[in-house]
């Protein structure tokens, strides 16, 4: 099952792509459903999949030193998760859990890399958009860290 071009247009990673580029991309995705509260990305695992959130939301969580889970972010319809794998092949940095019934479109880094090799402009635009997404996520994480440090310093 391919994703509709109209659905792809709604994702920041795919903004500015032409109709034919979106069509090429749409054939690379499969639908996946995840039940409420189920973890579908585990921190420290090696995974090569990228997900588009179509319906529902996710909680992005990390383990604290006492092994409880701390939520870093909530992501919703129209956002992506797992896209860091396009920038660097590494272990997952966080656990991702479904909030409510979740519908995703899923593809792999390998499928996208093959597509980008055959369609360089498409690859360039996706990577440029990815860099903007990553900058925003780093900025958001820096704000969380700054606020947490401020709370810690107030305790002393």
UniProtKB/TrEMBL annotation:
One of its GO terms (biological process) is regulation of membrane potential. InterPro entries: cNMP-bd_dom, cNMP-bd_dom_sf, KCNH_animal-type, RmlC-like_jellyroll. It comes from Pseudobacteriovorax antillogorgiicola. SMART domains: cNMP (SM00100). GO terms for cellular component: plasma membrane. Gene3D superfamilies: Jelly Rolls. Residues 13-133 form the Cyclic nucleotide-binding domain. One of its GO terms (molecular function) is voltage-gated potassium channel activity. Signal peptide: none annotated. CDD domains: CAP_ED (cd00038). Pfam families: cNMP_binding. This is Cyclic nucleotide-binding domain-containing protein.
